[in-house]
């Protein structure tokens, strides 16, 4: 991307209000839920699949998986977590419980009473396990794609951002630039899609409330293994079947965390992607979809 264009994208972060007029400029649908208005897309017929994105990148991270699953005969839902994408920037702390409530309210509204396959990538792993810990009966199978929520060695900037006052200062001065530049830093195998990725990320980061929401999510979800790990443990106790994919070159949620996850879910199916980064779900869409299809077909055979 040209430096001039990148500079403009950074300058536009948090510059605009997410008004009804702005929402009309974008694709997708909106639904008013008790926890906050949610931007989503639902397409296809057949067994339902719900895709939950991670910390900062909204639902476009599932572009390739979404299209693939629809083409294979599934009814697929993807949506923006509260505080990012085009979903409402709500007041209060952005906790696993808040995100689990959003997910529960969304599926109750769109696919009431149906069991579904549930996917979570990065921080989405903490979201879907917070949900599965409470509502295991509705989850047919869980897919974790380089999930956050295990105990890990937080980098210095995260520790600094956790401090009241200092975190607000950091995010107001550098948060937008760091999040935008870092959003595709692990785009290893699809560098030709860097411009698309940056444009799509910036498309929603331009709306006010994004930085406050991501800072709160860092403090109240990413850096709270005391909350997230018990949700993983409860999900395992609930007997929810699990498939996990993790890249060995992941710099955001390092691969060593898979060891703790394996201890919690000793029977899970773990697929190790050698030399893959954190966003393989987008970066290596075809490779990811092959594993997903294999696991979905196996689950369907077991259910018969």
Word description of this protein:
Helix content is 46%, strand content 15%. The chain is α/β, with parallel strands linked by helices and 304 residues long. It has an eight-stranded mixed sheet with strand order 1-2-4-3-5-6-7-8, sandwiched between helices. The longest helix has 19 residues, at 285-303.
Question: What's the average pLDDT?
Answer: 96
User: What is the CA-CA span between the terminal residues?
Assistant: 50 Å
Q: What portion of residues belong to β-strands? A: 15-25%
Q: How many helix segments?
A: 13
What shape does the CA trace take? globular
- The tally of strands reads 8
How do you describe this structure in short?
The chain is α/β, with parallel strands linked by helices and 304 residues long.
List the topology elements:
Layout: H1 3-11, H2 20-23, E1 29-33, E2 36-43, E3 48-52, H3 63-71, E4 75-79, H4 96-110, E5 116-121, H5 124-134, E6 139-145, H6 156-161, H7 166-183, H8 194-205, H9 210-222, H10 225-237, E7 242-247, H11 257-264, E8 269-273, H12 280-283, H13 285-303
Parallel strand pairs: 3-4, 3-5, 5-6, 6-7, 7-8
Antiparallel strand pairs: 1-2, 2-4
Helix pairs in contact: 3-13, 4-5, 5-10, 7-8
Tag the structure with descriptive keywords.
304 residues, alpha/beta, eight-stranded mixed beta sheet, 13 helices, 15% strand, globular
């Amino acid at each position: 991307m040209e430096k001039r264009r990148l500079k403009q994208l950074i300058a536009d972060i948090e510059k605009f209000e997410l008004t009804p007029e702005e929402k009309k400029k974008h694709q997708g649908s909106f639904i008013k839920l008790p926890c906050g208005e949610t931007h989503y897309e639902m397409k296809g017929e057949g067994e339902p699949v719900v895709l939950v994105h991670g910390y900062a990148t909204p639902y476009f991270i599932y572009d390739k998986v979404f299209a693939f699953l629809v083409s294979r005969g599934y009814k697929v839902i993807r949506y923006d977590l509260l505080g990012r994408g085009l979903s409402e920037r709500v007041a209060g702390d952005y906790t696993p419980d808040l995100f689990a409530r959003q997910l529960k309210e969304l599926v109750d509204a769109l696919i009431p009473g149906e069991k579904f396959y549930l996917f979570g990538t990065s921080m989405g792993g903490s979201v879907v396990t917070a949900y599965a810990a409470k509502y295991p009966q509705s989850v047919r199978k869980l897919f974790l794609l380089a999930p956050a929520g295990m105990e890990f060695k937080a980098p210095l900037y995260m520790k600094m951002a956790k401090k009241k006052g200092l975190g607000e200062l950091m995010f107001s001065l550098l948060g937008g630039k760091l999040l935008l530049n870092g959003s595709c830093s692990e785009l290893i195998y699809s560098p030709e899609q860097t411009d698309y990725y940056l444009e799509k990320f910036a498309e929603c980061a331009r709306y006010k409330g994004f930085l406050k929401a991501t800072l709160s999510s860092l403090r109240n979800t990413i850096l709270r293994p005391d909350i997230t790990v018990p949700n993983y443990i409860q999900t395992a106790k609930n007997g929810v079947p699990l498939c996990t994919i993790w890249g060995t070159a992941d710099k955001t949620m390092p691969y060593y965390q898979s060891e703790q996850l394996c201890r919690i879910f000793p029977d899970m199916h773990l697929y190790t992607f050698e030399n893959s980064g954190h966003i393989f779900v987008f970066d290596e869409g075809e490779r990811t979809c092959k594993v997903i299809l294999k696991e979905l077909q196996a689950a369907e055979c077991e259910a018969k």
